[in-house]
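Hi R.,

Here are the chain sequences for the assembly we discussed:
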Amino acid sequence: MADTKIRNMEEFAAVSGISRPTVSKYFNDPESVRDSTRTRIEAALEKHAYRPNIYAMNQNRKLTKNLGIVVPLLSDPYFAEIARNLEQRCIAAGYRPTLFSSHGQPEMEVHVLDTLRSLKPAGVLLAPLGRSSEKDALSAFCDDVPTLIFDSSVDELGLAFVGSDNMQFTAHITDYLCRTGEPPCFFEMKTPANPNAHRRRQSYLSAMEEFGYTPDVISIDGEGWEFEEIGRLGGHQALKDGRFSTNTILCSNDRLAIGLLTACYEQGVSVGRAEGATIRVAGQDGHPHSRYTCPPLTTISHDYEAVSQTAADALFAAIDGQVSPWKSTRLEGKLILRDSA
Amino acid sequence: MADTKIRNMEEFAAVSGISRPTVSKYFNDPESVRDSTRTRIEAALEKHAYRPNIYAMNQNRKLTKNLGIVVPLLSDPYFAEIARNLEQRCIAAGYRPTLFSSHGQPEMEVHVLDTLRSLKPAGVLLAPLGRSSEKDALSAFCDDVPTLIFDSSVDELGLAFVGSDNMQFTAHITDYLCRTGEPPCFFEMKTPANPNAHRRRQSYLSAMEEFGYTPDVISIDGEGWEFEEIGRLGGHQALKDGRFSTNTILCSNDRLAIGLLTACYEQGVSVGRAEGATIRVAGQDGHPHSRYTCPPLTTISHDYEAVSQTAADALFAAIDGQVSPWKSTRLEGKLILRDSA
DNA sequence: AATAAATCTTTACGCGCGTAAATTTTTTGT
DNA sequence: ACAAAAAATTTACGCGCGTAAAGATTTATT
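And here is the predicted structure of the full complex:
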């Protein structure tokens, strides 16, 4: 119980019987003081529940304990999930993460970076919008703030890049589809939001060529981040026009696949690998929702844990002063077999 | 271009030709200075891109321009969507919102409130976890920080409550289902996470009684926030046990319905209002994903815009000093007719 | 027990800005 | 053009803490 209200570190130092500079040292890093001192401070902390004023704390410190986590679209459960994962790791490592979403808008991304700058963060975990990002703003930001890029790489910006191995993703699932039925055609957006989509198309083309099949890419129209709706509309159009050359469709990502499944439903096209189904549909990403589509979506999933751990650890290492040359880490995905393909 | 780096407000005041206190006044509220002064400051701002140090700013100010937005689970697109909506409104109103998720964990909710406290926010928009919330911590927080509760009410905490009219939701969609086919049974979690679920059950019972039908509530097991999986497993069980007394199922919320649809698919039960379908399924919430289920889900949707606007405006008014007694505002939902029911 | 090393205390300054009071300048109204 | 009102300037202090330096105290080493 706080019998007397502690107004500042001076007063707290008094009640804990430790000098203020030492208390300050403790809050900077509890390990930096002697055990006996730490015990006394923490005993006082129990009694009085004092917390240092973070504004006064961060004003003079060259580097704060703040971290930024930026994703392109928080309403996409994939990003929400990876953001949650990163957030937990940051907290566990003793940082104060703040979550931001660019909401799919380049100007918002710039605004977020601007806000982040003023927070003087020790580092930032940034998943850029991709194609529509204002490269100059990103680049300038990375020059000023230790930034680790994840999910979608932009040039060789920042400390390093950590993401998934999109080439492996597509090669792997294409291989699976070829071995279990007709070779797939590839369903994608004509102007995808991020570079991962290009890698996936490229990998599809390579894989098909390697297997001796003729690739068939269906590129649908649509701008923005409403992938389900783009997939649904594009799916309707493609079905109507008979553009699917095989009974197997590999989608560039799960959200597109979810939209395509809806289009299939709406046109009465049955989907699945079971007898009697007309077409097979597979996605890519291991989207949290993919388990609950009808039929449940066969997909190749990001290794969420590994991506977030690798990304977070790389940033922490850089913050701790471990300099290492820019590098790109791409982690393999795991095939998740469900009923759709 | 910034020819000379501006280090603080003093230097910026110098290059803009305005005194520092006036510049300070400008950053507090641009409207509070003369037009000619504002123009000169903004001209200098163009040239030098100076931003006040937010830590120094907030250190002395009794009230910051910070706002907190807290949702129980950010990976639920419903909350992600409403959070995005609120965030935009806060920015438009000149505040600096920060987004937090309790990730479905009561201890995380407490941690978030603790973090929020140290940010000395002007106000907080809080959607509590509900049943599992630590009431005392919430209550203590509301005593210290102007807090507006939304989505799910807890006692009469905070400045006010803004949410949806769950009674109207369920009455309305129950009415629709009764008029268009067999009266619905009600599919829900036995121990729901928040009080809205209780209102919905109550409203279902009242509506059925009013229409002269016998209500049938199927309460399924499951703890936590993975509603789709709970709905899927509960759906399997209920289908196996033949617990659905009519061919129409009203789910307590859309995520449960999504899981139930998956269970139906997995058991080969056809869903829809079309000829030949076995059962009808309806949800409640207007979840962003409900458009893309197979079949697309008939639901009653929150008025996202109205809820977020009412909540944000109420908080802004309170921050501006407009005192008003605690009140609860519950907004009506709109029926969205799709193929599932 | 004596010395060296680590840690703590005391003292002091500064960070960047909010803010108040007294004064001067500019704008407004007639 | 003149007085009154509004706004800007000058001056000055304080917020809560980081941090540096010098001296005092505790702990570790032999």
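The longest strand of chain B covers residues 66-71. The longest helix of chain B spans residues 77-92.

Let me know if anything looks off.

Best,
T.
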